[in-house]
Design goal:
The protein is built from ten helices and 13 strands. The chain is of the alpha/beta class. Helix 1 packs across helix 2 and helix 1 packs across helix 3.
């Protein structure tokens, strides 16, 4: 299967347009049509309906494989490019918003840094594809347990910080006076779903271990990345939010009650491409040293 044809197919399927895909890829529309026809001939299956442009059932199945296949190819190229590349004098870091806290920010070199805030699930892909020299990703875990990361490429992950968790509630909430809260107390509560700015509700459902789809109902979905806005929404009574305790503290109009059961922490990990025969040098090495010191 030709990866160039596969990349064209993924772009057409994502944009639902041959002309838009041609514009994004820098091809003519005729070339895009030829790519799709060649891929369909190779697989002996129709992959796209034309009016409207949409994946067929076989095309949908191919899309399930295509993203991982293309990312693996990008990761392989990025890994091999490091053998020929000169040592870099700059550092590019991709990070999920809650992975940016005092410890990780203090470790950044003073100059020559590009910091990109990305959705949590995109950070490993950015490191794998060589779009970032290093990644910082966060999530919920049991103390000292590693995060469950997508298998996008050979990545080396190491923990750099663990913080306690707290539930952010309005000061008038019936549970605001508790000294601690259990997830069992909060299954039927109304929650803020903020996958980029906070800790996704599907992670809460996963660690709670209750029946699939049970509890942790979404009252409001926030699609921004500003954690302060998320905390303000919780203070205004639009739903509960689970945040690292340092972030949850001192929110005007809200109180932060520690999560005491199950035993969970907010964990931050450093991601690097694994398997290289060369050690990190320059700003990358300095960043790693400062993170781990």
């Amino acid at each position: 299967m030709d990866p160039h044809l596969l990349r064209t197919y993924v772009t057409v399927a994502r944009l639902a347009s041959f002309s838009e895909a041609a514009r994004e890829l820098g091809y003519t529309q005729s070339a895009v049509s030829q790519h799709i026809a060649a891929l369909e001939a190779d697989l002996a299956l129709p992959l796209l309906s034309r009016r409207p442009v949409a994946p067929t059932p076989a095309g949908e199945r191919l899309l399930e494989h295509a993203g991982a296949l293309l990312l693996r190819l990008d990761a392989a190229r990025a890994d091999l490019d490091r053998f020929a590349a000169a040592p870099r004098a700059t550092l590019s870091v991709a990070a999920s918003p809650l992975a940016l806290h005092a410890r990780t920010l203090d470790a950044l070199p003073a100059i020559g840094v590009t910091l990109r805030a990305l959705p949590r699930e995109r950070v490993p892909a950015a490191v794998a594809a060589g779009e970032a020299d290093a990644g910082l990703v966060d999530g919920i875990a049991a103390p000292s347990d590693p995060l469950r990361l997508p298998d996008v490429a050979p990545l080396a992950a190491s923990g750099v910080a663990e913080e306690p968790l707290a539930v952010v509630l309005p000061v008038s909430h019936p549970l605001a006076g508790r000294s601690g809260l259990r997830l069992d107390d909060l299954v039927d509560a109304r929650w803020l779903d903020a996958p980029a700015a906070g800790l996704p509700l599907d992670q809460l459902r996963g660690v709670h271990g209750g029946p699939a789809g049970r509890g942790f109902r979404t009252a409001l979905r926030y699609e921004g990345t500003d954690t302060r806005t998320l905390a303000a929404l919780a203070a205004a009574g639009h739903g509960l939010a689970l945040l690292p305790a340092p972030v949850a503290a001192d929110v005007p109009g809200a109180t932060a009650v520690p999560l005491v059961a199950p035993r969970l922490v907010h964990r931050t990990e450093l991601l690097l491409l694994a398997g290289s025969r060369t050690e990190p040098v320059g700003p990358v090495a300095e960043f790693i040293r400062r993170l781990k010191s």
